[in-house]
What we know:
Blueprint: E1 2-7, H1 15-23, E2 28-35, E3 42-50, H2 53-63, E4 67-68, E5 71-72, E6 74-77
Antiparallel strand pairs: 1-3, 1-6, 2-3, 4-5
Amino acid sequence: MKNIFVSNLSFRINDDDLKQAFADYGAVNSAKVIKDNFSGRSRGFGFVEMTNDEEAVKAIEELNNAEFDGKVMTVSEARPKTDRKPGGFSDSRGGGGHGDSRGGGGGGYGDKSRGGFKKRY
């Protein structure tokens, strides 16, 4: 069984539409368009689970960069979920702020002794 990640979906696409698009390539176990918890609106991506791996690979190859409801969707094999720290940042990100490789982030209005708002590295 393969889990497939589909992004750049039209906001009009629902679970049944997504399932139908992949059903032409083989048996679809499930299809789910991810929705915003607050508004209930599509977030523009979803997941499809196909029973047969060979059919799933063919669907990925043929549907990646294909137009679906006026948008060119991106289709790939879904990566497994990883453990996340609170706040949604993975272990490779810094602690808070922008989360770049320098770590930190912070805030404030800059250090006037260093020339106002510009940050020096």
